[in-house]
Amino acid sequence: MNVYEMTRSDASQLIMIGPIGALIGAPLASWISSRLETIKRPYIVVHIIVLLGWFSFLLCNGHPSFFFLIIIFFIIGFGYGASALTFAAVRQSFKLEESGIVSGIANTGGFLSAVLLPIIFGYILDHFQSTSGNLVDGYYYGFITPVIFSIVGLIGVILFKEKRQSLNKNNKQG
What we know:
By secondary structure, this protein is mainly alpha-helical. The protein is 82% helix and 0% strand. α3 (40-59) packs antiparallel against α4.
């Protein structure tokens, strides 16, 4: 809000671009994974795109152009919408009796990052505000946090052992 000299109303409208991306990302990622009959590959691509979205803040020194900011918010929102693939991956990888517990644990990871990210980011901004008064540096170093979180998520998806959907279809028929 302060960096782009926006009113509170304008900033809230800008933030709404992320949920619009999420509304598109969830069904599109599900459709793509169904078409490809794999969850892992599209999920890895989505995670890389989200990681690049967060990393682009670092490339722009924490202050991308307004137009680029809109694109970044949409991309990050799209990726978070596509995170619904987590539950499809859990359902595919665990027995039906275990999938509820594992889904809860997977959901906790998402909520935990949603809680920790603003706390850590705010702490970094407060630190730079109080020591140097330079918020631009604070934003730059603050954006390292979501980059790290995205790398952890990408590692988790890469480590996911997928059972092919087409094999499951053959097992049901035979």
